[in-house]
Specification:
The protein has helices at 42-47, 58-84; strands at 3-8, 18-27, 30-41. It has 91 residues and is an alpha+beta fold. The longest helix is centred in the C-terminal third of the chain and has 27 residues, at 58-84.
């Protein structure tokens, strides 16, 4: 089963104090980590429970939408590859 988890790298905050959001993509006990190109304040990330709760700020809503599209595209590409080959690896 394909699994996508988003997390912050708080130690790499930019000048605005925002931390980059990374994605860990796992399948068959193998995983790869990649950046999403998005960032958020650590306090906002924690307050919204990793953007899972009701979002009030427009920036958070747009960011959540972007991450949802990111995950959807990963799953779409995975499904396309699964149709061609049964030997799939995230690496």
């Amino acid at each position: 089963m394909l699994k996508v988890i988003f997390y912050l790298k708080a130690g790499k905050a930019n000048k605005k104090g925002e931390s980059p959001i990374f994605a860990r993509i796992s399948y068959n006990q193998q995983s790869i980590t990649m950046t999403t190109g998005k960032s958020i304040l650590k306090e906002s990330w924690l307050f919204t429970k990793n953007l899972r709760t009701v979002l009030k700020l427009e920036k958070e809503k747009v960011l959540k939408h972007s991450l949802d599209l990111f995950q959807l595209n990963i799953e779409k590409k995975f499904n396309e590859l699964a149709k061609v080959s049964s030997d799939i690896s995230p690496v």
